[in-house]
Write a structure and sequence with these properties.
The structure is a single chain. The protein is an alpha/beta fold. The protein folds into 2 domains: 144 residues, 3-Layer(aba) Sandwich (Rossmann fold); 49 residues, no CATH class. Helices cover 27% and strands 23% of the residues. The protein has a 7-stranded mixed β-sheet, sandwiched between helices. The chain is globular. The termini are far apart. About 3% of the residues have low confidence.
Length: 196
């Protein structure tokens, strides 16, 4: 596990002068982009979909000023972080391992974990799987839904089937992204700018 210092950005905001640094770390076979600011206990911020570290831009100076070492990665597959080709490389086990790997590279035993949207889903799982590493959890906009048993009288159906049952043929973005290549082809179209 190695680190590579990248760039520094200074805010032009007249009300707050601060330095936000960027670097890359290597863990779990990936090169992961981190934005960070401040010193103190580690606070790891997990962005939602379709976001990047930049989603936390306004929170960085406040949390750093409050005494935290604030770190926000571009999660696996997003932004400047490596994007493995295999779909199987994007399980929650892989994503949680990335967060643990970030702590290891930074030389930290624990972190406060803060998640938004999809980042909340990841944060819940990280705190459940590794309470020794993530003893404090803050989530926004996505509540915790425990998965029910897979077999027996109280068995639950997979989320993809539950979405279909609840929504029918109504468009739901998470269902849309289940077919490999469909969303990618649409998103990669060279569409004219809005209003053109």
């Amino acid at each position: 596990m190695t680190t590579e210092q990248n760039a520094t950005h200074t805010s032009n905001d007249k009300s707050e002068s601060y330095t936000l640094s960027h670097r890359f770390v290597e863990t779990n076979g990936l090169r992961i982009h981190l934005a960070e600011q401040g010193t103190g206990p580690l606070m790891l911020l997990c962005h939602g979909f379709p976001e990047l570290w930049y989603s936390w831009w306004h929170q960085f100076p406040e949390l750093a000023e409050a005494g935290y070492h604030v770190v926000a990665p571009d999660l696996r597959g997003y932004g400047q972080t490596d994007q493995p080709k295999d779909i199987e490389a994007y399980t929650l086990l892989h994503l949680v391992a990335d967060l643990v790997g970030i702590l290891d590279v930074l030389g930290e035993r624990q972190a406060i974990l803060l998640g938004h949207d999809w980042g909340s889903v990841l944060a819940w799982q990280a705190a459940l799987m590794r309470p020794d590493r993530f003893p404090v959890l803050i989530t926004m906009s996505s509540p915790y839904f425990p998965r029910g048993p897979l077999h027996g009288a109280r068995a639950t159906i997979p989320p993809t089937q539950a979405w279909k049952k609840a929504l029918g043929d109504t468009f739901f973005y998470q269902s849309y992204f289940q077919q490999p290549g469909v969303a990618e082809a649409e998103l990669e179209l060279d569409s004219p700018p809005i209003g053109a």
